[in-house]
Fold these 4 entries.
Entry 1:
Amino acid sequence: QKLILKMTTVSLNRDEKHHQIHRECITYDGILIGDRVYSEVYLTISNSLIPEERLQPTPSMLDGLDLHTETDLRILGCELIQSAGILLRLPQVAMATGQVLFHRFFYSKSFVKHSFEIVAMACVNLASKIEEAPRRFRDVINVFHHLKQSHRGKRSASSLILDQNYINTKNQVIKAERRILKELGFCVHVKHPHKIIVMYLQVLECEKNQTLVQTAWNYMNDSLRTNVFVRFQAETIACACIYLAARALQMPLPSRPHWYLLFGATEEEIKDICITTLKLYTRKKPDYDHLEKEVEKRKMSLQEAKLKAKGLNPDGTPALSNLGGFSPGSKPCSPNVVKVEDKSPNPQALKPVKKEPDSRAQGSKSPHNGLRKEAKIGRNSRSRSGSRSRTRSRSRSPRRQ
């Protein structure tokens, strides 16, 4: 029994040392799996907020897209997600999740390199799965096809044809959904302030005022088109929506001290959220075709810059650095052509020089010459054989005598 106790204590000490070393590897270098050390991935709600230094310049701005066009693309994408969610009869929470994922993705990727329409479809499909209200790919693509036609002002909307274009679009949406998960590190949870608004109004004893509750919810749903949800916590956004609703309805709220200080919000954050949301109502409605043309221009300019860096023309042919470079005229002349210098001004002085035919080559090709050669060779061989036979006969003749 003593030996067993000693062995167990030794094994426990070894396990503790192993766990201690493993913890040190986790805290400083990462996770040790076998002989390799892997870094950690922290999936927390605080990681969903984007720091201020990453807000500008965005990847789209680095690709040459101006801030106004990028903001219009964000608003248009969120409007498509909201309208598609209504047609698909998704809950508001799913539509809000899709819009937040849309904003998060395009703070790590560019609008020039990724189609905002395909990404919006992928966000709707992914959000419907997250909020446990999944929809089919065919329904999502069909709804976006209808919305695209309505945005372009077509009265007679055509139905979606299930051809090769539909299959390609479906595959693009599937790839975009995987890309979103990869870029966000599978941290797709979104904390929504819907319930927080009701809870705060209960604390303020204003929950019975349905107009105030509905107005605060409307402001919150409209702020989903902005970048508010990737910059501030859900509690701060709820306070800002209540503040806007109370100001719009001219309802007094406690101000000594200010009521939002109770919930951890500051005056600067509430002002920033309110100004960003109110600016949304002063903007013009984004033009679908104009935004697509702007993105296509930037895409073409990026492709031309890449080809120019590789030394190629826009059509893929090699670019000429100078006049003496690659040219058909710079090829060396063939040995069959004699080069004549152009020294005399008289053009008649330049006469083409004919090359003498190769007798060997012509003789081997023409059958007539070949027969003559064969005939000559035959005669020579006969004469030689005849002379040999005569000499042999002369040498043998005296022996017979």
Entry 2:
Amino acid sequence: MCMLWFWNPSNPQQPRSWPSDHALRGREVTSKPAMVDPEGRSRATERLRSRDLDGIAQFMADHARHVVVLCGAGISTSAGIPDFRSPGTGLYHNLQRFDLPEAEAIFDLKYFQKHPDAFYELCREMWPGNYAPTACHYFIRLLSDKGILQRCYTQNIDSLEHAAGIPAELLVAAHGNFDAAHVVDDNVGLASSYDVDITELQDALHDPGDEGWQELREHHGGLVKPKIVFFGEELPKRFFELHKADLALCDLLLVMGTSLQVSPFNTLLSLTSDKPRLLINREAVGSCDELAGGFCFQADSDGQDVFYQGDCDAGVEALAERLGWLKELQELVALGQKEAEELQHSEKLPSHSVFSEECH
């Protein structure tokens, strides 16, 4: 039985030497540049003072200038969007009403080409604007605002990162999202043929029923879907073009709200095993016993892995408090909720009815 390093959220005391927010923004980089081995992996030159949130916060102030974020469905659940696999409440459970052969069929390219109506109902429900970004999304936004976000790699398809104001150049939507759309060839199994303005699909799905998307299909000669990666489709080129360089430059890895069960996304951990890494999650995932270069939380390990066990929003709020960013974070969350409410009352969004009321 191994001992794990857990952060206790009941102790919110800040580090005594924590610099002011203005000092952090204007501070020149004092840490040495990351060394890179012959295979392109960087070697860390600075270490955490302690393996807890205080240590992470102090490291961010002193050394972190290239933070990489890996995030999954857990950062969006507080917005009202179910994760995929939670029994009784997850997305796959809620999709049983469509009588799918299996829950994953909703994201199967061949199934979509034969039975598109179920996926279009899901699109209506998850369309950007139906939900407001969470504290996690806005914490990533703050990393960008303060100039220390190298990249955010997200598994989520909800586009809430974009809604939170994270610049597109700092985002990699590994599984796609609602930012763009394309035509899928009607010949089952073939890839997409060309891009379509996402607003065309939004307009087609505005009213319930099949008429809108069927007219769009006739107009473009094939089904139109958001650029969400289905089973049978490749990940975006951007993922493969950027991840090695980003993780070589990374000086702090922040992982939030993901089960780390999906490849190749979970293989990104193997490129950061020598870096300080923080996992914010309800349970420990991606252990070194399961993944190459995975987390090693044992007290006697040589790694610099920290685990905050709990709700993702609570985790970033606790870290933001130590960084002196909590007020900014709360203001962004409040503003985002107000904007989402105004959009929901504008009648510009597609109608939706997939999830039961208790999910909102």
Entry 3:
Amino acid sequence: MDRFTLLRSGPFRFGFVATLGVLLALLLGAAVVSLSTALTLIFVAFFVCLGLYPTVRRLEGRGFSRGGAVATVVGCFLVVVGLLLWLVLPIVVAQLGQLFTYLPSGYDEISEQQWFIDLDAGLGGALTPGLEWARTTASDPNTWLAVGGGALKVGTGIINQVFGVIFVLALTIYFVAGLEAMKSSFYALVPASRRAGVIDLAETIMESVGKYLGGMVILAAINAVFTFLLLTVAGVSFAPVLAALAFPNTLIPLIGSVINLVIITTVSLFAGPETALFVGLAMLVYVQIESYVLTPRIVGKAISIPASLVLIGAMVGATLLGLLGALIACPVSASVLLIVKKVVMPRQEAA
């Protein structure tokens, strides 16, 4: 009886409950880590759905039935993805193979260019060892296997990526088709006294995020096409690979286009300093046009947050989820700010 009395007393009961809480938190944390890949794919599919859904509503406004609008959007989405896989992917894969073959001779070409010889002489030959190290490292297959974690891990990663893409495509279709039913079920769980406010907040967030994501995809596609045309005209090798790389880079808010500018200008040095200067200036002009002309017209004011928060969100997102985290940093930050503005601040004012 004394033992049970001790367990029912304040300090012992608190310690027991606290220990159970810590164990439960550890179990939940381990479960989240184990499901991180699946949760990330679900998150990606939901964001793709939000990007497609404004088009569904636009078609409904033009007289389409809901089923017809969903079928049209899903069909066009699958056609675009299929064309990318059929036309773009083989070219990019072939170009990547050529890139790995070209890198050793490409470094040799740089060492023979006059600008490199003059700069190396001015630095007392300091550039030659670094270039030789880069050439040796790039030509060693073990380097790329080490980067990928080994041959087995590379193969497993490719297979996982293929299944991940298939899963995201299938889940996106289900999300687009059943989003209204999902929203209705979620709203029904909210108490009636708060339901109107929750519906208004949720619809505002989803509409803003959808418009933003759709606009950013269009901007990224325009940037990728311009990158391909610019590099092709300038005679820079591997334009398809760099254009494919420009698409996800441009999706990163604020700094994505600048990252793409630095990458393609650096690669253009393989063709000579004049080519790199031309590519850099042309891309710089395009970045200005994109920032001050295209972005306001295409994205508009779907999401309006301070630039400092965008950069902080992109850094935190990239640390947590890599490239995906950087891509979704802006809409997530805007959603949090909207919740603070419409929920937290009014409560503070009323307190």
Entry 4:
Amino acid sequence: MLAEKGRAKTWEPNSPSNVTRAKGFQSVSFPHSDMEEQKENIQDQDENKSPGDSGARDTPHLKPACPPGSSIVDSEPAVPPSHREFSDPVYKEIALANGHINRMNRDELRAKLSELKLDTRGVKDVLKKRLKSYYKKQKLTLSAAEAAKTGMFYDLICVVDFEATCEENNPQDFEHEIIEFPIVLIDTHTLEIVDSFQEYVKPEINPKLSDFCVQLTGITQKMVDEADTFPAVLRRVVSWLQEKELGTKYRYTLLTDGSWDMSKFLNIQCRISGIRYPPFARKWINIRKSYGNFYKVPRTNTKLSSMLEKLGLKYEGRPHCGLDDARNISRIALRMLQDGCQLRDNEHLHEGQLQSVPSSDPPEGAPPPHNPKGRH
């Protein structure tokens, strides 16, 4: 069974991307529908009940099934810099450069970025941020203190985007069960996607998928019928992470598109499966918060399609295929790293409740992954 599911090859930093995939895929085409908008509305209603949760994922038009394989964004209070930090003349130079950049129009920004051999895609605010980050890096001295400030917090980031059971009009007490567990691994040093993992999961409470769920995700009844239940899939996820030496040799964390995946899907699934919530998934990067805070955009502009569009990128693959969603989220994360963003954990689960991680907390890598114990 394990051999059929195909464990991924051992990861090497410069090796081409590989993917562990679940068996039983069947190519299916789906019609266009407004059901995705309805799902988003349902998730938005849930968010109104839990202010800490992120909004639902955005819902572009459906494409053929993928192959296996408020208001303003909440800003965390920053630690106020010391007076000495800004007494260095380099900060005056940076301020002058920023003022000049602020007066440039979009064509001038693109011309300067092209001259510097930097990416010229994106809206004006993104281009300004990219150019400012470039000049800031150039101006800052390479002292040990500054190197620590500009260095990466993690060696590797695991981008996770679950798909779960759903109905067209979810009852208030509907319990979502994970039916796809994808991970995309990005290297923060080479700024590349280096590996990926994907398996489908057999739901137990509602084993028969709704027509709405099938059309939305592209996951067929045959796929989940032939899959293992969540505890078995999670064990293989842990083995895959251990093979990559995450938490031992390499510092890592998780990243999601909003709070929904960890605070809802994984939290509910662990309770359903009678296992404890895995410690390695207690903290994560909510890329919507990071994106909004870094590019200074309103909350309404932090949905997946909006983030891609403002960065000059297009969605690749099939929306609501978990693996394709994770790959596109990874592209956003990589672009943010290229633009000088320091991605770090900004949310965590404490006693089952979603909480923000204060920006004053020192960044920590996730602990080495282990199989969670059963609930007592």
